[in-house]
Amino acid sequence: MYSVIIFDWSGTISDDREPVYRANMLLLKYFDQEEVDFERWIKNIGSSVLDFYRAEGINTEPEELVKLFSKFYDEVCFNGVKPKIYPEVKETLQFLKKKNVRMAVLSAHPQKHLLAEAREYGIDHFFELIRGGCWDKAEGLRKVCREMGINLKRKRKRAGVLYVGDTTHDIKSAHEAGIASAWVDHGYHKKEDIFLENLSPEHLLANLTGLKYL
Description:
The chain is α/β, with parallel strands linked by helices. It has two domains: about 5-15 and about 85-214, 3-Layer(aba) Sandwich (Rossmann fold); about 15-80. The protein has ten helices and eight strands. The protein has helices spanning about 15-30, 40-45, 50-55, 60-80, 90-100, 110-120, 135-145, 155-160, 170-175, 190-195; strands at about 5, 15, 85, 100-105, 130, 160-165, 180-185, 205. α6 (about 110-120) links the parallel β4 and β5. α1 (about 15-30) packs across α4 (about 60-80) and α7 packs across α9. The N and C termini lie close together (about 5 Å).
């Protein structure tokens, strides 16, 4: 069992693929770009959503893109297309808490939505830190660890930290930060995406319940 587990949010804890997709299509429309279908979007989202915007010819500063995405995401949710928590999440977090595992969240999802959704799902109290709006997850993981008092330069401390995510970007970021990764098979990227990029997460999980057995 790891002593510290840091979670991605979108596609890992929260199934927000539909509202995120719709918000992204509104953003493309805002920049007079053609919409893409869901399968193409999720396949070509790349290592991060910023890469997707760049590939679609949108070179606006990241901070402005976050503001626009947040606006369109609010609009989509207001119209009834909302994210939902994966069914096994609460039970898994409760189990880990009883085992004294320290937990945090690091995500590219905008901070205000991250906090609101964590409260709505009733799981915000499980996490020591909740950090959103992170484009560079490797550096973000280092910062979260520093805030939690974890010295990643010490091998023993580093070995006790796990980052759980659902994309190739999550796995790469964890390894770049020097910590272990677990990939969960119910989010944005599929298993073949992991293998095509020759990535080797320490753990492959069908869902978060698998964390109980690590």
